[in-house]
Write a structure and sequence with these properties.
By secondary structure, the protein is an alpha/beta fold. Helix content is about 40%, strand content about 20%. The protein has twelve helices and eleven strands. The strands form two sheets. Strands 4-3-2-1-9-10-11 form a seven-stranded mixed β-sheet, sandwiched between helices. β9, α11 and β10 form a beta-alpha-beta unit. The longest helix is centred in the N-terminal third of the chain and has 15 residues. The chain is globular, with a radius of gyration of 19 Å.
C-alpha cells in the first residue's frame, strides 16, 4: 500500500518520501495506516462546530450509521489551535467519539487520532518550521505592534515550545480594521527579512503568524490522496471569513457549508450558506447536499 502511495507522491508533488519500511520508523509509526476508500470525506472547522449539543450528537450518529452500512466516512477536524490545545478543548467539551484525524495550526500538522506525534510523511512533504525565525518574529511584534496587538496567552501557552501558535488579539478599535493591520505586519516582517505567513480570522478577530509551508488546502489534498477520496466526494464545513474557509475555497470541486452568513446566497449549488451556526448549520448543510 505504501509503495503505491509513494508513487502517487512522486507524480503529484515531484519528489518522493522515504519508504517507511526502509527507514525503520518507531513502533507507533509502523502501525499508522490510512484507510483507502472511495466514499465521503467530511472536514469540519473545530471552532465553527461550537459547543457540544444535541445537533452535534445527531451529526456523529449519522456518521456512525453511515459507517455501519459499510460505507466510509472519513471525519477530519481542522483548527488554528495546536494539537495539545485542540485535544484539551475536545476533552473538556466531552466531544463524541468518531473523529479520524486532526489538522492543526491552520494546516501545518496532521494528527491521526490515537497518535501523539504528527504524520511523518506529511511533515516531510511540507516541512517549513526550520526556516521560521520565531524569536526575531516575536521581537518585531513586540517592538512595532504592541499598541495594536496583544498575544493570546491562553492559546499560546497550550502548545509545546516548538508548536506554540503565534496568535494575537487586536487592542481597542483595531479589530474593526484587522486586514489593514495584517498588511502592516506582513510588510514589516518581509522588510526585516523574516519569512512567515500572516493570516486573519475575521469572525474570531484574531491574527496568526505561521511558517511558510503547508496550508489547510494542502492538508486536505494530502488526506484525499491517502484515503483515495476525490475532491468531488469531499465536504467542508466552517464559518464564513475564517482562515480555514478562506483557504479551502480554492478546492474548486468540493462541497462547502458556510455558517454565520447574514444574507445567505445559495446561487452556487456547490456552496451552501446559512445564517445558523454550530452543528445546526452543519446538519442543514448535510441535508442540502444530501450527504449522510
Amino acid at each position: 500500500f505504501w509503495s503505491a502511495m509513494e508513487s502517487a507522491f512522486v507524480s503529484s508533488y515531484g519528489r518522493s518520501v522515504t519508504n517507511p519500511i526502509r527507514r525503520r520508523p518507531c513502533r507507533h509509526q509502523r502501525r499508522r495506516i490510512w484507510m483507502a476508500s472511495s466514499d465521503v470525506l467530511v472536514v469540519a472547522e473545530l471552532e465553527a462546530m461550537g459547543a457540544v449539543s444535541p445537533e452535534m450528537h445527531d451529526f456523529f450518529a449519522r456518521v456512525d450509521t453511515h459507517r455501519k452500512a459499510k460505507q466510509t466516512c472519513y471525519l477530519v477536524l481542522a483548527t488554528q489551535r495546536s494539537h495539545k490545545s485542540a485535544m484539551k478543548h475536545m476533552s473538556e467539551s466531552k466531544y463524541p467519539l468518531g473523529v479520524d484525524c486532526l489538522v492543526t495550526r491552520s494546516g501545518l500538522d496532521i494528527y491521526q487520532m490515537g497518535y501523539a506525534t504528527p504524520d511523518p510523511y506529511y511533515a516531510e512533504l511540507f516541512s517549513g518550521n526550520d526556516s521560521f525565525d520565531r524569536k526575531p518574529t516575536e521581537w518585531v511584534m513586540s517592538e512595532f505592534f504592541s499598541e495594536k496587538l496583544k498575544p493570546d496567552r491562553e492559546l499560546q501557552n497550550e502548545g509545546s515550545p516548538s508548536e506554540e501558535p503565534m496568535i494575537y488579539d487586536p487592542k481597542e478599535t483595531f479589530g474593526e480594521n484587522l486586514p489593514a493591520v495584517q498588511e502592516e505586519v506582513s510588510a514589516k516582517l518581509t522588510e526585516m527579512g523574516l519569512k512567515s505567513r500572516v493570516v486573519v480570522d475575521l469572525d474570531a478577530k484574531k491574527l496568526q503568524i505561521l511558517p511558510i509551508s503547508a496550508t489547510i488546502k494542502d492538508a486536505i489534498g494530502f488526506i484525499q490522496k491517502m484515503t483515495k477520496i476525490t475532491e468531488e466526494n469531499t465536504m467542508i464545513f466552517g464559518a464564513k471569513n475564517s482562515v480555514i474557509m478562506d483557504d479551502v475555497a480554492k478546492q474548486e470541486k468540493s462541497l462547502l457549508i458556510l455558517s454565520g452568513v447574514e444574507t445567505p446566497d445559495n446561487a452556487d449549488p456547490r456552496i451552501f450558506e446559512t445564517a445558523s451556526v454550530g452543528a445546526t448549520a452543519l446538519l442543514e448543510g448535510l441535508l442540502h447536499h444530501a450527504i449522510l
